[in-house]
Specification:
41% helix; Inosine-uridine Nucleoside N-ribohydrolase, Chain A; binds beta-D-ribofuranose; binds calcium ion; 362 residues; 15 helices; two-stranded antiparallel ribbon
Amino acid sequence: MTERRPIVVDCDTGIDDSLALLYLCASDDAELVAVTCCSGNVEARQVAENNRGLLELIGRGDIEVALGRTVPLVRPLEITPETHGPQGIGYAELPSGRRPLSERHAADLIAQEARRRPGELTLLCIGPLTNLAVALEREPALPRLLRRLVIMGGAFRVPGNTTPVSEWNIHCDPDAARAVLQAWTTAIEADPTVPRLVALGLDVTERAIVRPDHVVALARRAGSRPDDSIALGHGEDPLDTTRSVASNAVVRFVADALRFYMEFHARYDGFYAAFVHDPLAAAAALDETLIRTEALAVDVETGGELAAGQTIADFRGLWHRPPNVDVAVTADTDEFINRWIERVGALAAHVGVAAKPSDVAP
Ligand code: BDR
Ligand code: CA
Protein backbone atom coordinates (compact mmCIF):
# COMPACT_ATOMS: atom_id res chain seq x y z
CA MET A 1 0.00 0.00 0.00
CA THR A 2 1.23 3.53 -0.80
CA GLU A 3 2.48 5.46 2.21
CA ARG A 4 0.24 8.51 2.68
CA ARG A 5 2.26 11.51 3.74
CA PRO A 6 0.35 13.82 6.15
CA ILE A 7 0.59 17.38 4.90
CA VAL A 8 -0.66 20.82 5.95
CA VAL A 9 -0.69 23.46 3.22
CA ASP A 10 -0.39 27.17 3.95
CA CYS A 11 -1.39 29.14 0.86
CA ASP A 12 -2.63 32.39 -0.67
CA THR A 13 -4.99 30.84 -3.29
CA GLY A 14 -4.22 31.97 -6.04
CA ILE A 15 -4.57 30.15 -9.37
CA ASP A 16 -1.48 27.96 -9.01
CA ASP A 17 -2.18 27.44 -5.30
CA SER A 18 -5.59 26.02 -6.25
CA LEU A 19 -3.88 23.68 -8.73
CA ALA A 20 -1.45 22.59 -5.99
CA LEU A 21 -4.38 21.70 -3.73
CA LEU A 22 -6.02 19.74 -6.56
CA TYR A 23 -2.74 17.87 -7.10
CA LEU A 24 -2.51 16.91 -3.44
CA CYS A 25 -6.17 15.83 -3.26
CA ALA A 26 -5.56 13.77 -6.40
CA SER A 27 -2.49 12.03 -4.95
CA ASP A 28 -2.77 8.65 -3.21
CA ASP A 29 0.51 9.35 -1.44
CA ALA A 30 -0.87 12.48 0.30
CA GLU A 31 -3.13 12.91 3.29
CA LEU A 32 -4.22 16.55 3.22
CA VAL A 33 -4.68 17.24 6.93
CA ALA A 34 -5.72 20.91 6.71
CA VAL A 35 -5.34 24.07 4.65
CA THR A 36 -4.32 27.36 6.26
CA CYS A 37 -4.76 30.74 4.62
CA CYS A 38 -2.55 33.81 4.38
CA SER A 39 -2.78 37.05 2.42
CA GLY A 40 -0.73 37.28 -0.75
CA ASN A 41 -2.24 36.86 -4.19
CA VAL A 42 -5.54 38.00 -2.66
CA GLU A 43 -6.63 38.92 0.86
CA ALA A 44 -6.63 36.01 3.36
CA ARG A 45 -10.44 35.95 3.84
CA GLN A 46 -10.88 35.56 0.08
CA VAL A 47 -8.19 32.86 0.13
CA ALA A 48 -10.25 30.97 2.72
CA GLU A 49 -13.39 31.27 0.57
CA ASN A 50 -11.48 29.97 -2.43
CA ASN A 51 -10.04 27.03 -0.51
CA ARG A 52 -13.40 26.04 0.99
CA GLY A 53 -15.12 26.33 -2.40
CA LEU A 54 -12.43 24.34 -4.18
CA LEU A 55 -12.54 21.51 -1.64
CA GLU A 56 -16.34 21.49 -1.87
CA LEU A 57 -16.13 21.25 -5.67
CA ILE A 58 -14.14 18.03 -5.45
CA GLY A 59 -16.18 16.51 -2.64
CA ARG A 60 -13.50 17.18 0.02
CA GLY A 61 -15.42 19.83 1.94
CA ASP A 62 -14.59 17.82 5.08
CA ILE A 63 -11.01 19.16 5.12
CA GLU A 64 -10.35 21.83 7.75
CA VAL A 65 -9.62 25.34 6.42
CA ALA A 66 -8.22 27.88 8.88
CA LEU A 67 -7.64 31.61 8.55
CA GLY A 68 -4.33 33.06 9.61
CA ARG A 69 -2.87 36.50 10.07
CA THR A 70 -4.42 38.77 7.46
CA VAL A 71 -1.53 41.22 7.05
CA PRO A 72 2.25 40.83 6.80
CA LEU A 73 4.35 41.13 9.97
CA VAL A 74 5.70 44.61 9.24
CA ARG A 75 5.07 45.74 5.68
CA PRO A 76 1.72 46.95 4.37
CA LEU A 77 -0.45 44.35 2.64
CA GLU A 78 0.08 43.98 -1.10
CA ILE A 79 -2.08 41.78 -3.33
CA THR A 80 -1.96 41.01 -7.05
CA PRO A 81 -5.41 40.80 -8.71
CA GLU A 82 -3.84 41.48 -12.11
CA THR A 83 -2.03 38.12 -11.84
CA HIS A 84 -4.76 35.93 -10.35
CA GLY A 85 -8.02 37.84 -10.95
CA PRO A 86 -10.14 39.82 -8.48
CA GLN A 87 -11.09 36.68 -6.55
CA GLY A 88 -7.76 34.93 -7.02
CA ILE A 89 -9.11 32.14 -9.23
CA GLY A 90 -8.96 33.80 -12.65
CA TYR A 91 -12.21 33.42 -14.60
CA ALA A 92 -13.34 30.39 -12.60
CA GLU A 93 -16.32 30.15 -10.27
CA LEU A 94 -16.61 27.97 -7.20
CA PRO A 95 -19.47 26.80 -5.01
CA SER A 96 -19.62 27.92 -1.39
CA GLY A 97 -17.96 25.66 1.13
CA ARG A 98 -20.38 23.97 3.52
CA ARG A 99 -17.95 23.30 6.34
CA PRO A 100 -17.50 26.51 8.35
CA LEU A 101 -14.10 28.04 8.67
CA SER A 102 -12.06 26.42 11.45
CA GLU A 103 -12.13 28.01 14.88
CA ARG A 104 -8.37 27.49 15.06
CA HIS A 105 -5.99 30.24 13.99
CA ALA A 106 -3.71 29.01 11.19
CA ALA A 107 -0.62 29.44 13.37
CA ASP A 108 -2.13 27.36 16.19
CA LEU A 109 -3.26 24.70 13.75
CA ILE A 110 0.26 24.36 12.33
CA ALA A 111 1.83 24.16 15.80
CA GLN A 112 -0.78 21.74 17.16
CA GLU A 113 -0.69 19.38 14.18
CA ALA A 114 3.12 19.29 14.27
CA ARG A 115 3.08 18.47 18.01
CA ARG A 116 0.40 15.81 17.51
CA ARG A 117 2.67 13.73 15.25
CA PRO A 118 6.30 14.68 15.87
CA GLY A 119 8.55 13.98 12.90
CA GLU A 120 5.67 13.01 10.59
CA LEU A 121 4.03 16.17 9.29
CA THR A 122 5.11 17.89 6.07
CA LEU A 123 4.33 21.60 6.00
CA LEU A 124 4.03 23.06 2.51
CA CYS A 125 4.05 26.87 2.33
CA ILE A 126 3.15 28.24 -1.09
CA GLY A 127 2.37 31.83 -0.13
CA PRO A 128 4.10 34.47 2.00
CA LEU A 129 5.52 32.98 5.21
CA THR A 130 3.48 35.15 7.62
CA ASN A 131 1.54 32.32 9.29
CA LEU A 132 4.62 30.18 9.75
CA ALA A 133 6.50 33.08 11.37
CA VAL A 134 3.62 33.47 13.85
CA ALA A 135 3.51 29.69 14.40
CA LEU A 136 7.23 29.76 15.24
CA GLU A 137 6.58 32.39 17.92
CA ARG A 138 4.02 29.99 19.44
CA GLU A 139 6.08 26.83 18.94
CA PRO A 140 9.81 27.50 18.46
CA ALA A 141 10.49 23.74 18.23
CA LEU A 142 8.71 23.51 14.84
CA PRO A 143 11.91 22.85 12.83
CA ARG A 144 12.45 19.75 14.99
CA LEU A 145 8.79 18.70 15.12
CA LEU A 146 8.14 18.75 11.37
CA ARG A 147 9.17 15.94 9.06
CA ARG A 148 9.98 18.61 6.52
CA LEU A 149 9.14 22.19 5.60
CA VAL A 150 8.85 22.75 1.85
CA ILE A 151 8.35 26.27 0.52
CA MET A 152 7.75 27.84 -2.86
CA GLY A 153 9.76 31.00 -2.55
CA GLY A 154 12.86 32.89 -3.55
CA ALA A 155 15.02 33.48 -6.60
CA PHE A 156 18.55 32.18 -6.08
CA ARG A 157 20.50 32.23 -9.35
CA VAL A 158 17.78 33.92 -11.40
CA PRO A 159 16.09 37.34 -11.43
CA GLY A 160 13.02 38.07 -9.33
CA ASN A 161 9.46 38.24 -10.63
CA THR A 162 8.29 41.13 -8.46
CA THR A 163 11.36 43.35 -8.25
CA PRO A 164 14.55 42.66 -10.20
CA VAL A 165 15.77 40.58 -7.23
CA SER A 166 12.71 39.43 -5.29
CA GLU A 167 10.17 36.68 -5.78
CA TRP A 168 6.53 37.41 -4.89
CA ASN A 169 6.07 35.21 -1.78
CA ILE A 170 9.23 36.54 -0.15
CA HIS A 171 8.61 40.10 -1.38
CA CYS A 172 5.20 40.24 0.36
CA ASP A 173 6.56 39.45 3.81
CA PRO A 174 10.37 39.46 3.92
CA ASP A 175 10.36 39.82 7.71
CA ALA A 176 8.42 36.58 8.05
CA ALA A 177 10.73 34.82 5.59
CA ARG A 178 13.78 36.00 7.54
CA ALA A 179 12.27 34.83 10.83
CA VAL A 180 11.63 31.38 9.32
CA LEU A 181 15.13 31.06 7.87
CA GLN A 182 16.72 32.19 11.13
CA ALA A 183 14.60 29.75 13.14
CA TRP A 184 15.91 26.90 10.98
CA THR A 185 19.51 28.13 11.36
CA THR A 186 19.15 28.30 15.14
CA ALA A 187 17.61 24.83 15.29
CA ILE A 188 20.31 23.32 13.06
CA GLU A 189 23.09 24.99 15.05
CA ALA A 190 21.66 23.41 18.20
CA ASP A 191 21.04 20.01 16.59
CA PRO A 192 22.59 19.24 13.19
CA THR A 193 20.09 16.39 12.63
CA VAL A 194 17.21 18.88 12.23
CA PRO A 195 16.17 18.69 8.55
CA ARG A 196 16.94 21.72 6.41
CA LEU A 197 13.91 23.35 4.84
CA VAL A 198 13.45 22.77 1.12
CA ALA A 199 13.00 25.84 -1.10
CA LEU A 200 11.73 25.72 -4.66
CA GLY A 201 12.48 29.14 -6.07
CA LEU A 202 11.94 30.60 -9.51
CA ASP A 203 15.13 28.78 -10.60
CA VAL A 204 13.02 25.62 -10.92
CA THR A 205 9.38 26.73 -10.79
CA GLU A 206 9.70 28.85 -13.93
CA ARG A 207 10.61 25.65 -15.75
CA ALA A 208 7.28 24.06 -14.82
CA ILE A 209 5.01 25.35 -17.57
CA VAL A 210 1.46 24.26 -18.35
CA ARG A 211 0.40 24.85 -21.96
CA PRO A 212 -3.09 24.74 -23.50
CA ASP A 213 -2.38 21.27 -24.95
CA HIS A 214 -1.66 20.01 -21.42
CA VAL A 215 -5.13 21.20 -20.37
CA VAL A 216 -6.58 19.34 -23.35
CA ALA A 217 -4.70 16.19 -22.29
CA LEU A 218 -6.09 16.58 -18.78
CA ALA A 219 -9.62 17.02 -20.16
CA ARG A 220 -9.17 13.81 -22.21
CA ARG A 221 -7.92 11.91 -19.16
CA ALA A 222 -11.01 13.14 -17.30
CA GLY A 223 -13.32 11.98 -20.09
CA SER A 224 -14.63 15.55 -20.38
CA ARG A 225 -16.36 16.64 -23.59
CA PRO A 226 -15.59 18.57 -25.74
CA ASP A 227 -11.86 18.33 -25.12
CA ASP A 228 -10.39 20.89 -27.52
CA SER A 229 -8.82 24.04 -26.14
CA ILE A 230 -11.28 26.45 -27.81
CA ALA A 231 -14.18 24.68 -26.18
CA LEU A 232 -12.24 24.73 -22.94
CA GLY A 233 -12.47 28.50 -23.11
CA HIS A 234 -9.49 29.74 -25.09
CA GLY A 235 -11.04 31.66 -27.96
CA GLU A 236 -9.20 33.40 -30.77
CA ASP A 237 -9.55 36.75 -29.04
CA PRO A 238 -7.26 36.73 -26.01
CA LEU A 239 -9.61 39.10 -24.24
CA ASP A 240 -12.63 36.89 -24.90
CA THR A 241 -14.00 36.04 -21.49
CA THR A 242 -16.18 33.13 -22.56
CA ARG A 243 -16.13 30.51 -19.86
CA SER A 244 -15.26 26.90 -20.51
CA VAL A 245 -18.11 24.69 -21.71
CA ALA A 246 -16.38 21.46 -20.67
CA SER A 247 -18.81 18.89 -19.30
CA ASN A 248 -16.62 18.16 -16.28
CA ALA A 249 -16.74 20.65 -13.40
CA VAL A 250 -13.11 20.17 -12.36
CA VAL A 251 -11.90 20.58 -15.95
CA ARG A 252 -14.00 23.74 -16.24
CA PHE A 253 -12.39 25.10 -13.09
CA VAL A 254 -8.88 24.28 -14.31
CA ALA A 255 -9.51 25.75 -17.79
CA ASP A 256 -11.14 28.96 -16.53
CA ALA A 257 -8.53 29.55 -13.85
CA LEU A 258 -5.58 28.79 -16.14
CA ARG A 259 -6.85 30.87 -19.05
CA PHE A 260 -6.59 34.00 -16.90
CA TYR A 261 -3.07 32.99 -15.79
CA MET A 262 -2.04 32.26 -19.41
CA GLU A 263 -3.31 35.67 -20.50
CA PHE A 264 -1.27 37.24 -17.69
CA HIS A 265 1.86 35.40 -18.85
CA ALA A 266 1.14 36.38 -22.46
CA ARG A 267 1.11 40.04 -21.36
CA TYR A 268 4.16 39.95 -19.07
CA ASP A 269 6.30 37.05 -20.24
CA GLY A 270 5.50 36.82 -23.96
CA PHE A 271 4.08 33.27 -24.12
CA TYR A 272 0.56 31.84 -23.87
CA ALA A 273 1.07 29.26 -21.11
CA ALA A 274 1.50 29.43 -17.34
CA PHE A 275 4.20 28.86 -14.74
CA VAL A 276 2.83 26.41 -12.20
CA HIS A 277 5.10 27.27 -9.29
CA ASP A 278 2.99 25.91 -6.44
CA PRO A 279 1.95 22.56 -7.98
CA LEU A 280 5.62 21.76 -8.60
CA ALA A 281 6.35 22.49 -4.92
CA ALA A 282 3.42 20.25 -3.93
CA ALA A 283 4.70 17.43 -6.12
CA ALA A 284 8.22 17.77 -4.67
CA ALA A 285 6.80 17.77 -1.12
CA LEU A 286 5.39 14.32 -1.87
CA ASP A 287 8.36 13.04 -3.85
CA GLU A 288 11.73 14.71 -3.33
CA THR A 289 13.26 12.69 -6.18
CA LEU A 290 11.60 15.18 -8.57
CA ILE A 291 14.19 17.79 -7.59
CA ARG A 292 17.92 18.01 -7.04
CA THR A 293 19.00 20.35 -4.27
CA GLU A 294 22.08 22.12 -2.98
CA ALA A 295 22.53 22.71 0.79
CA LEU A 296 23.14 26.41 1.33
CA ALA A 297 22.99 29.08 4.02
CA VAL A 298 20.19 31.42 2.96
CA ASP A 299 18.98 34.73 4.38
CA VAL A 300 16.63 37.48 3.23
CA GLU A 301 17.17 41.21 2.89
CA THR A 302 14.40 42.95 4.82
CA GLY A 303 15.47 46.58 4.38
CA GLY A 304 17.29 48.55 1.76
CA GLU A 305 16.19 50.63 -1.14
CA LEU A 306 16.71 48.20 -4.01
CA ALA A 307 17.10 44.70 -2.60
CA ALA A 308 14.25 44.25 -0.09
CA GLY A 309 12.89 40.72 -0.36
CA GLN A 310 16.00 39.32 -2.04
CA THR A 311 16.87 35.76 -1.05
CA ILE A 312 20.64 35.65 -0.61
CA ALA A 313 22.34 32.26 -0.78
CA ASP A 314 25.91 32.03 0.48
CA PHE A 315 27.31 29.99 -2.43
CA ARG A 316 30.93 30.41 -1.27
CA GLY A 317 30.41 29.78 2.44
CA LEU A 318 31.57 33.30 3.30
CA TRP A 319 29.19 33.58 6.30
CA HIS A 320 30.55 30.38 7.91
CA ARG A 321 27.00 29.41 8.87
CA PRO A 322 25.58 25.91 8.60
CA PRO A 323 23.32 25.45 5.56
CA ASN A 324 19.68 25.97 6.58
CA VAL A 325 18.07 25.35 3.16
CA ASP A 326 18.09 22.67 0.52
CA VAL A 327 17.74 24.94 -2.50
CA ALA A 328 16.20 23.22 -5.54
CA VAL A 329 18.57 23.59 -8.47
CA THR A 330 16.95 21.29 -11.03
CA ALA A 331 13.54 19.63 -11.37
CA ASP A 332 12.17 16.86 -13.55
CA THR A 333 9.42 19.05 -14.92
CA ASP A 334 8.40 16.66 -17.73
CA GLU A 335 7.68 13.94 -15.20
CA PHE A 336 5.87 16.46 -13.00
CA ILE A 337 3.60 17.64 -15.86
CA ASN A 338 2.81 14.01 -16.75
CA ARG A 339 1.86 13.32 -13.14
CA TRP A 340 -0.23 16.50 -13.01
CA ILE A 341 -2.22 15.45 -16.09
CA GLU A 342 -2.65 11.88 -14.86
CA ARG A 343 -3.54 12.64 -11.25
CA VAL A 344 -5.74 15.72 -11.65
CA GLY A 345 -7.34 14.16 -14.75
CA ALA A 346 -8.19 11.04 -12.75
CA LEU A 347 -9.55 13.13 -9.88
CA ALA A 348 -11.73 15.07 -12.33
CA ALA A 349 -13.01 11.80 -13.84
CA HIS A 350 -13.86 10.59 -10.35
CA VAL A 351 -15.67 13.78 -9.34
CA GLY A 352 -17.63 13.46 -12.56
CA VAL A 353 -19.90 15.51 -14.69
CA ALA A 354 -21.99 18.44 -13.51
CA ALA A 355 -23.77 21.10 -15.55
CA LYS A 356 -22.55 23.95 -13.37
CA PRO A 357 -20.30 24.20 -10.31
CA SER A 358 -23.29 24.62 -7.96
CA ASP A 359 -24.64 21.22 -9.08
CA VAL A 360 -21.66 19.53 -7.44
CA ALA A 361 -22.42 20.98 -4.04
CA PRO A 362 -26.20 21.25 -3.55
C1 BDR B 1 4.42 32.67 -6.30
O1 BDR B 1 3.70 33.89 -6.25
C2 BDR B 1 2.33 33.64 -6.41
O2 BDR B 1 1.74 34.56 -7.29
C3 BDR B 1 2.17 32.22 -6.86
O3 BDR B 1 0.99 31.67 -6.31
C4 BDR B 1 3.42 31.54 -6.34
O4 BDR B 1 3.22 31.02 -5.05
C5 BDR B 1 5.38 32.72 -7.46
O5 BDR B 1 6.25 33.78 -7.32
CA1 CA C 1 1.00 30.96 -4.03
